[in-house]
Design brief:
Blueprint lengths: L8 H23 L1 H11 L4 H37 L5 H40 L1 H29 L1
């Protein structure tokens, strides 16, 4: 493996796993839509008139897990490769890459958890229940991005 990519290989791996998960989650949702709908419907506490709207919200949130997993997996890989080509210390490259990857896995998981909790807790309650997890994942993603952007800017300004 190229010495340049070695420090960010774990982040790239986690990014690829995020993409694979996003694809697998899309297949799971497509192939099990009826079973998921029945399961979510059984957990609902809302009256009959509100059930359809809550189901739409719940299924949309489950689908957001797919799109966020793909996007954040790609972001992790791209930022890791950019970070690999900067003059950052090896540990900073590894940390930035891994933080991005972990945050990129946690954020889609928060959407999926929120989707499953929506029928039971209602849209607002489910949203509130994942705020700590989503907040932590955003902080991880931003930290990884700031490390990448910081060292990229440092290299740009050093050469100017």
């Amino acid at each position: 493996m190229s010495e340049m990519i070695k420090p960010v290989r774990y982040g790239v791996l986690v990014g690829l796993l995020g993409i694979v998960f996003g694809i697998g989650w899309a297949f799971f949702l497509a192939l099990n839509e009826d079973a998921i709908g029945k399961g979510l419907n059984a957990e609902m506490k809302q009256d009959i008139s509100g059930r359809q709207e809550v189901m739409k919200i719940s299924l949309k949130r489950l689908g957001m897990g797919h799109s966020h997993s793909l996007a954040l997996g790609l972001l992790t890989i791209a930022a890791s490769i950019v970070l690999a080509f900067t003059g950052a210390p090896q540990k900073a490259k590894t940390a930035g890459s891994i933080l991005l990857g972990i945050g990129g896995l946690l954020f889609p998981a928060a959407w999926i958890i929120m989707g499953y909790r929506t029928p039971l807790l209602g849209p607002e309650g489910a949203h509130e229940s994942i705020i700590p997890m989503a907040g932590a994942s955003v902080m991880l993603i931003l930290t990884g991005l700031f490390i990448t952007i910081g060292f990229l800017l440092k290299d740009i300004l050093k050469k100017a």
